[in-house]
Design goal:
- The protein folds into two domains: 1-68; 83-117.
- The protein has four helices and no strands.
- It has helices spanning 4-14, 19-65, 74-82, 95-116.
- The termini are far apart.
- Residues 53-64, 81-93 have a biased composition (Low complexity).
């Protein structure tokens, strides 16, 4: 890209003084500068758009990384009130605690199925 100063120096060094040529050169330079400004503006807008899209995706990921448990149905409420407490300790469960809890749930389900049959 040629600067305006370089254009004027080149024009003056030739000494011809053709003002129409100078106007044509300056108009071409102006068009080139406007094109460059448009490209920069378009890149800036694209960059802003991509940044916004990235931020929205990050917010969605954060939202889905902590899922909200679904609302309980009236049938679930009735089952919850009739259930016994789970044998899981309040601390973080280990593998055996999980197996025991699953056995307990299976036994409850089997007993409930026998009563309803």
């Amino acid at each position: 890209m040629v600067s305006l100063q370089e254009l004027l120096q080149s024009f003056n060094s030739q000494g011809s003084g053709d003002t129409e040529l100078l106007k044509t050169i300056l108009n071409a330079k102006k068009a080139e500068d406007e094109l460059n400004a448009s490209v920069i503006n378009a890149r800036t807008e694209y960059s802003k758009s991509m940044r916004l899209q990235y931020q929205q995706q990050q917010q969605q990921r954060a939202q889905y990384s902590h899922p909200i448990s679904p609302p309980m149905s009236p049938a679930d409420d009735a089952n919850e009130s009739s259930k016994q407490t789970s044998p899981l300790p309040s601390s973080s469960p280990n593998r055996q605690d999980i197996i025991n809890a699953l056995k307990f749930k299976f036994q409850q389900h089997s007993e409930h199925s026998e009563h309803t049959s």
